[in-house]
Specification:
The complex is a heterodimer of chains A (about 325) and B (about 260). Chain A is α/β, with parallel strands linked by helices and about 325 residues long. Chain A has a single domain, classed as Rossmann fold (3-Layer(aba) Sandwich). Chain A is built from ten helices and eleven strands. Chain A has a seven-stranded mixed beta sheet, with helices on both faces. Chain A has a four-stranded antiparallel beta sheet with strand order 3-2-5-6, with helices on both faces. In chain A, strand 10 (about 285-290) and strand 11 (about 295-300) form a beta hairpin. The radius of gyration of chain B is 21 Å and the shape is elongated. With about 260 residues, chain B is mainly alpha-helical. Chain B has helices spanning about 1-30, 40-75, 85-120, 125-130, 135-175, 180-190, 195-220, 225-255. Helices cover about 85% and strands about 0% of the residues of chain B. Classes of the chains: A alpha/beta (about 325), B mainly alpha (about 260).
């Protein structure tokens, strides 16, 4: 694993403003409550979590910052593929994750929803070991990501497919080489087999006729779809989508959501979508985690979250202007 | 008082980070792990050959002309125009070719590496490599260093030839105060194969430093396009300083104690 003496992500949070969840005013650490301990104790990779219900906000929440964070985690009946256990992450003075406890169930399409700049993309980077927590642990199929050796980490990553916000296609390769790249690096398949797989994946995302184009000749939506094809080409167990709907028109967003559902039905596995688009959440989510200020507000099966009594969750999932979340 | 030490401390810290990162890349090349991506190495060789050869040879040819002209007029002013070859031999082989090579490597190859890797960093391409289970330092940096080592010695020696040819043209054909044979006699008398080897070592140490610095600043670029621009500028400053340090040390080590000149028997 490449060690970065200077964190290349740190500057992305330099513009954070007080109150936006990225930069903290001087705070006292939020003490763990008995419920926090129950959450941690319940983070067993082998078993599905039981529901943990808080009836009162955390006792040590300063200035009621976490009054809406009930930490309620409704049961799904399946084990978690990925678990965050009391994860803290800061970039300089900017605390991004502040005691995050979250599980992403196996075999379901999960969505991590939350306001902009609240740490959703940072979560993805922790799952694949691009970032390490300052405190806490991240488990993938029960294995601790921060404690892996470099070789273990590279092996673990082969189980992942990641769709980055802009596709992250390699600018020096055409589309077919981009999608074929993981197959050429990690399999012993013949070139004919590789090209068969690649063409099938490109057809699935509607790019069969654009296979010889370079990334700079593609629109944003096409790059995203190509990134999707590349993310799926090794048939990964866990697929992460970082805002797949950003910059897409509503029709293309709907089509992309359908595509995610179809491929999930075909392949199974833990699919995780990061977004703040509620329509996408209504279309594809089977499990939702609402993240705000570096912690989970509530999480559970989608239909239950959409009927939540929590004022913040209700406001966010209905997109209303009135409620706990303001412009500050 | 602490303020006085802040800047040097930052420089030392930065130097330490570059040294650590460079050590990792060198280790990956020496351990031959880089051969896992030999195809990418060959592609980088192609990029170097097609993108940088002519411009490096062109620059060295021009400075070779300058060495020849300066040498011819200087030796004529001393009343020994036949000895223009001494100036040309030393100027070309020992100083101007390594410096010209270093400058153009910094400007063309070093900044190119920073800009390319920096763009890959800010567009998440490096992260994409990592999450595919590929060691991005190995794939992006070690392959570039190995490609430089494979291609640049030959490119450098050909550049030396371009510099020699340019000096010959200036001294013999343009100014014409010494015959072709007279120029060649003195020119070859004042250099021998070890001098060429030392010159190549000088150039290759410069090239290695430039590639490593370019990889460091590109790989760790951040802050969007502005950050990539800043990293490119910083790498250029660092590389120019290093080129002169390596040039000075090389001259001291190879010719400082013994000028290797056939004077006085």
């Amino acid at each position: 694993m490449s060690e970065t003496p200077r964190d290349p992500y740190a500057d992305r949070y330099d513009d954070a403003e007080p109150g936006d969840g990225l930069r903290d005013e001087p705070t006292t650490p939020v003490a763990a409550t008995p419920d926090d301990e129950r959450l941690r104790a319940d983070d067993s990779p082998a078993s599905a979590r039981a529901a943990v219900v808080r009836e009162a906000p955390p006792a040590a929440a300063d200035d009621d910052e976490y009054q809406w964070h009930t930490g309620l985690n409704r049961p799904t009946g399946v084990a978690d593929a990925v678990e965050f256990i009391d994860v803290h992450k800061a970039f300089g003075r900017n605390k991004i994750l502040r005691g995050l406890n979250m599980g992403l169930p196996e075999g379901k399409i999960s969505m991590i929803l939350g306001p902009s700049g609240t740490g959703k993309s940072v979560c993805i980077k922790h799952m694949v070991g691009l970032l390490y927590p300052d405190e806490g642990d991240v488990l993938v199929h029960g294995e601790s990501v921060p404690n892996m050796t470099d070789d273990e980490l590279f092996d673990m990553r082969k189980r992942f497919g990641v769709l980055f916000q802009d596709g992250a296609l390699f600018g020096s390769m055409n589309l077919i080489d981009n999608v074929a790249f993981p197959l050429r690096q990690h399999t012993d398949k013949s070139e004919d087999e590789i090209l068969d797989i690649v063409r099938r994946r490109l057809d699935e995302v509607g790019l069969g006729s654009a296979h010889d184009k370079m990334p700079n000749e593609l629109s944003g939506g096409m790059r995203k779809r190509a990134g999707f094809a590349r993310a799926l080409v090794l048939d990964p167990n866990i697929v992460l989508f970082d805002e797949p709907d950003s910059g897409l028109d509503p029709v293309r967003t709907a089509l992309l959501c359908e595509l995610i559902q179809e491929i999930h039905e075909e392949n199974g596995g833990c699919y995780t979508v990061i977004t703040h688009d509620i329509m996408s959440a209504r279309r594809v989510a089977e499990f939702i985690s609402v993240l705000w200020k570096g912690r989970i507000v509530e999480s559970g099966p989608a239909e239950e979250l959409f009927n939540s009594e929590n004022a913040f969750v209700r406001q966010f999932l209905s997109g209303e202007s009135q409620g706990p979340l303001g412009m500050e | 008082m602490a303020g006085w030490f802040a800047l040097p401390r930052e420089w030392i810290s930065s130097f330490g980070e570059i040294a650590k990162f460079s050590g990792k890349i060198l280790g990956q090349v020496y351990s031959l792990r880089v051969l896992h991506f030999f195809g990418e190495t060959l592609r980088q060789c192609g990029v170097l050959i097609l993108g940088s050869t002519l411009v490096i040879w062109g620059l060295v040819f021009i400075v070779g002309l300058q060495c020849g002209i300066e040498g011819a007029y200087f030796t004529r002013a001393q009343g020994a125009p036949a000895y223009a070859g001494v100036f040309a031999a030393w100027c070309d082989l020992r100083e101007i070719v390594p410096y010209g090579f270093g400058y153009m490597m910094s400007a063309k190859v070093g900044t190119g590496i920073v800009a390319e890797l920096g763009s890959m960093r800010i567009s998440d391409e490096i992260d994409a490599l990592e999450v595919m289970g590929i060691d991005s330092v190995l794939f992006l940096c070690a392959t570039r260093l190995l490609a430089a080592w494979l291609v640049l010695p030959f490119m450098y020696m050909a550049a030396v030839g371009a510099g020699f040819f340019a000096s010959y043209l200036a001294v013999v054909q343009q100014i014409g105060e010494v015959s072709s044979g007279g120029f060649s006699l003195i020119f070859w008398m004042f250099q021998n194969p070890p001098d060429l080897l030392y010159s190549v070592i000088k150039g290759m140490v410069m090239a290695t430093a430039i590639v490593l610095v370019g990889c460091y600043y590109g790989y760790h670029a951040g802050g969007g396009p502005v950050g990539v621009g800043t990293a490119t500028a910083k790498s250029m400053v660092m590389n120019i300083v290093l080129v002169h340090l390596i040039g000075m040390l090389g001259t001291q080590v190879f010719w400082g104690a013994n000028p290797r000149a056939p004077i006085g028997g």
